[in-house]
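ok trying this again, last paste got cut off
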Amino acid sequence: MTRFNVLVLNQVSAKGLSRLPAERYVVGADIATPDGVLVRSADLHSREIPASVKAIARAGAGTNNIPVLAMSARGVPVFNAPGANANAVKELVLAAMLLTARNLAPALRFVAALDPREAAMEKTVEDGKKAFAGFELAGHTLGIVGLGKVGCLVADAAIKLGMDVWGFDPHITVDAAWSLPAQVRKAASVDEVLRQSDFVSLHVPLIDATRHMVNADNIGLMRAGAVLLNFSREGVVDEAAVLAALDAADARQRLGWYACDFPSAAVNAHRRVVALPHLGASTSEAEENCAVMVAEQVRDFLEQGHVHNSVNFPEVELPRASPFRIICATSNQSNAGNQVADAVRAAGLTIAGMSSVSRGDLSYLIADLDAQPADDLMSGIGGRPGVLMARRL
């Protein structure tokens, strides 16, 4: 039985690590030649990733701390845990909506500054509370940009709170579409969401297309006093544009609040900014869910070659047709997948079952053979032009 070494960076939930059985996995923070790497926030761009690494998994959704393109070139899948922390993020978004609608942040600062020894404290409270009068969520409109797992959960919760909901996502998946409440009204663009909403919540990855998605050109479309919520990635919002909108001289263009999970020197000091310290996935439940998901994904890949929730490999699962399995990642332009199949047949082996799937510039093949492939066949496959990785399972 093959044994695998898994390097764990950061603190990963023990419940997740328990999915890697001790009889087959050596798991630890001090492993020189790991087969797999489990990571949360550690920056892999700044460290050498050993040639032994066959899979990397982040116990979270974003993979900005992993050199995904470099791993693709090495034939290494990068896994994440989409949706595992969705409920935690949803609840934090709801908390931020309530914080801003009811002016709770300045109200808390007001109370913290009171002197409990002052005889007139009760009167000070009664006189001061008028400054913090807010409004209820029911009857107001929430706009959501990005209708993945988190966006759908936020939409459902907002509807149950009596809100109207608009949504925009040009790349919505079939699964997400099935989970989306029927009451969500479809917007045609980000601009329409900004124009229609009292609250706008962003739930998109940070890529070139979403960087500064809310910016100086469109933030003025938001309603006076509207609340912008960013619990996705810092860069999807232009902070300079947000600050200008918060301080707009014309009250008809003034943003009411900006709530985010990304403190920065630019926004922290503003009295109408609620900046939280990256709390989105910081619940014990979310950390366990993420750890369990990525540990199982890495195990399934190392043992079976299956790929689920990878950011750079296609989704693949193949029921075993024999005990002898090979996997291979190739450049999509090289036609190497067909060459691999030809090499197997030329070696006198029969393919009992096979799946070959492409994603972007990369193809991935799983093949079950009628006998164990020899070392020279595997080295021959691995040495072919366009082959990024070839492994016998």
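PB: full thing came through this time. The chain has three domains: 1-82+284-311, 86-275, 314-393.
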